[in-house]
Design goal:
This protein is of the alpha+beta class and 704 residues long. It has 3 domains: 147 residues, no CATH class; 269 residues, Alpha-Beta Complex (paralog of FGE (formylglycine-generating enzyme)); 237 residues, paralog of FGE (formylglycine-generating enzyme), CATH 3.90.1580. Helix content is 37%, strand content 9%. The protein is built from 20 helices and 17 strands. The strands form 5 sheets. The chain has a 4-stranded antiparallel beta sheet. α3 crosses α5, α3 runs parallel beside α6 and α8 crosses α9.
Length: 704
């Protein structure tokens, strides 16, 4: 429609331009002003009928269309396609006291820009056009109103935050809405810490690392899953203002001039002005903070959480980690891995970079981020920690060097070597001053039993292995034997002819999808004793979810019976459930890798052996003889191959495993190419299949 309007404008202008002048400009001006007196913006063309000269009427109609066309042009600002003009004018709009002034300013710029693109008018019409232009720029532009108003509001908020943060001589009070918003965010932060919310704080179990040839034991602790964000640090600063702690505020506030001072040859002035105050950067890691300011943040968080939850067992101090704690957490449970994601490479199989750093000198944006990235960017490591490599170098204290200040993990300006967990160079060692490259994430000691975390169980839920104190996962895929227990229970409870029993049966006809002679597998795979320890297949997502609920209820009954029998030695969980793992949870389990002992076997005695039940080349599935190179006919028993560090079998291969996100399976299966099976890979499905199974996770529910 815009193109048609523009063509119509151009045609009318050309028609008016080519007409010879019939009357003088002075006469035209008198007639024009007479007819436009008192005309409102919504009916600005209705007086044209008062003109007697037909040619001048055409010219005035043309100018009216220009005014209306400008409205359509401004309205397009809110559409999906942003025009070149908007990107040039909107960012440089100055501050005005009212919305009307702001809109009029933009209107005049748009109409003026359009005037430069149309054909030149005859000299006797220029002043008439200018009069009409003034009227056009006063028109109410409804379409642009909302967009410009939002721009104005966000700009005002950002400048208000800058005003509150950047003053050194006066301390304006936050207004009611600002205080209310800050208190809401503060409450959320304290609640997350008090409950050690999984999304915000990861449990890092006891472990050890080897540094310079010596083994170092690390006690369990909690670590924030992301670097501290601008929003979190700003909440701290505003709370200092609310409490009247002005001296502390001045010491703790970030020095955003570091964006320009650290990189004087880059155009970082917009980052200096907006990075810490604008809402667009709320969830980016805070930078430009001093070591002193970070220590004050940690102390503030410790005091405030214990003050708010004073009737609870005190939370240990929030603090900066030691280098050993940080390295142990960064491994994600993997051994001898240079990077948090496990391999020796900085890219995944698809060629995408796995962290925010500088792949080549001066090429900051090849990894997907020109400066810093959001604090939860890229994939988390095995413990659920984001950006343990790159983004911002994270503050630590070197334990063996009298707690010397330093950093770990490298930043958005680091070369790949600086991202290494153990051997990465620390170019910020001894630095306590602010930097645009340095941020932090806090840790909290784990003291075991407390009202803030669930008391340790002394029983392991049936069929599972422990991942952390309130999260367990099945050791194997669900077997045919387990599913037979389920359908037998349904048969005994509801009867063989019941819909409950019928709906629990797996679909054995799935074997027809791949085998010409499928009858033996249709008949025997699910029920024959020879296949009891094999993974169940032919079950749907709905059936898998129903099984998890059934299993939860049966285990609750088991625990009740054991407690009634007088078992006082064990601590049983109260609130819990079995369910399918989320995609994120499954990927965390799969990234654990092998234990050091198992890895030695695979590199030695079993070198060259297949590590999973998957296709290794063309034709490497069931043959007429019924065997493959691995001596596996189709699927393998669930405890085949080698378990990972958690003790879990066949996360890769055998059956692809359903996750909570319906239609997605992880880990590949016996029919998939083993070389293409990765942690990130998703397989999709719509119904039961001969390659699709599942395993459950056991999740403890925290007390309110």
């Amino acid at each position: 429609m815009d193109d048609n309007n523009n063509k119509r404008l151009d045609n009318l202008f050309n028609q008016a331009k080519n007409e010879p002048s019939k009357i003088s400009y002075q006469e035209t001006q008198k007639q024009f002003l007479k007819t436009t007196t008192g005309v409102s913006s919504s009916i600005a063309g209705k007086g044209i009928a008062n003109f007697l000269n037909l040619k001048i009427s055409i010219m005035i109609a043309t100018l009216s269309v220009i005014a209306v066309g400008s409205i359509f042009y401004i309205n397009s600002l809110t559409g999906d396609k942003t025009t070149e003009l908007v990107t040039e004018t909107i960012p440089i709009i100055e501050e005005y006291t009212t919305d009307e002034q702001l809109i009029n300013k933009a209107s005049k710029e748009v109409v003026t820009a359009h005037m430069e693109k149309v054909n030149q008018l005859p000299s006797n019409l220029k002043e008439v056009y200018q009069v009409k232009l003034e009227l056009a720029s006063k028109l109410k532009m409804v379409g642009a109103n909302d967009s410009l108003k939002r721009h104005k509001i966000e700009r005002e908020k950002s400048e208000r935050k800058s005003e509150l943060l950047d003053t050194s001589y006066r301390f304006p009070n936050l207004n009611y809405e600002e205080r209310r918003a800050n208190e809401k965010q503060k409450t959320k932060m304290l609640k997350d810490l008090a409950k050690f919310d999984k999304k915000k704080y990861a449990f890092i179990p006891n472990g050890s690392i080897t540094q310079d040839g010596k083994a170092i034991s690390i006690k369990a602790f909690y670590m924030q899953t992301t670097e501290v964000t601008n929003l979190e640090y700003r909440t701290f600063l505003f709370d200092l203002l609310i409490q009247g702690r002005f001296d502390a505020f001045l010491l703790a506030k970030p020095d955003q001039s570091r964006w320009v001072k650290d990189y004087p040859y880059a155009f970082n002035k917009p980052m200096q002005m907006n990075y810490f105050s604008h809402a667009a950067y709320d969830y980016y890691p805070v930078v430009g903070v001093s070591r002193q300011g970070v220590e004050m943040y940690c102390k503030w968080l410790s005091i405030e959480v214990n003050k708010k939850y004073s009737n609870k067992t005190p939370i240990p101090d929030v603090r900066i980690p030691t280098d050993y704690e940080w390295m142990h957490a960064a491994t994600g449970g993997l051994k001898n891995s240079p990077y948090p994601w496990g391999g020796p490479y900085l890219r995944n199989a698809k060629g995408a970079y796995l962290a925010n750093f500088m792949p080549k000198k001066g090429h900051y944006n090849e990894d997907g981020a020109f400066h810093t990235a959001k604090a939860n960017s890229y994939h988390p490591n095995g413990y659920g920690l984001f950006c343990m490599a790159g983004n911002v170098a994270e503050m630590v204290y070197y334990f063996d060097e009298n707690m010397l200040p330093g950093t770990k993990g490298g930043s958005w300006t680091s070369a790949g070597q600086e991202l290494q967990i153990m051997d990465g160079k620390d170019r910020f060692k001894k630095m306590i001053k602010p930097s645009a490259d340095i941020g932090f994430r806090p840790v909290i000691a784990y003291l075991g039993k407390s009202s803030y975390s669930i008391n340790d169980m002394t029983v392991t839920p049936p069929g599972t292995v422990k991942i952390d104190p309130d999260f367990y996962a099945d050791e194997t895929e669900i077997t045919n034997f387990s599913w037979l227990e389920y359908v037998t229970w349904m048969k005994d409870k509801f009867g063989e002819g019941s819909p409950e029993y019928f709906n629990a049966l797996p679909d054995t006809t799935v074997w027809r999808k791949i085998l010409k002679t499928s009858q033996p597998y249709e008949k025997h795979y699910f029920k024959h004793p020879a296949y009891r320890a094999y993974p169940v297949v032919g079950v749907s997502y709905k059936q898998a979810v129903a099984y998890c609920k059934w299993r939860t209820n049966r285990v609750k009954e088991l625990y009740d019976l054991q407690k009634e029998a007088g078992d006082k030695k064990n601590i049983y969980p109260t609130g819990f459930e079995y369910r399918l793992p989320t995609k994120k949870e499954w990927e965390r389990l799969a990234r654990a890798g092998y234990s050091e002992k198992t890895q030695k076997k695979l590199n030695g005695k079993y070198k060259g052996h297949s590590e999973m039940n998957a296709k290794r080349g063309k034709g490497d599935t069931i043959s007429l003889k019924g065997v493959t190179k691995d001596a596996v006919d189709i699927l393998a028993p669930v405890q085949s191959y080698w378990p990972n560090r958690y003790g879990m079998y066949n996360l890769f291969g055998n059956t692809a495993e359903m996750v909570m996100e319906k239609g997605i399976a992880k880990g590949g299966s016996w029919i998939h190419d083993g070389d293409k099976i990765t942690v990130e890979r998703d397989d999709t499905y719509e119904e039961q299949n001969h390659w699709l199974g599942f395993r459950c996770v056991f999740v403890r529910k925290k007390k309110n």
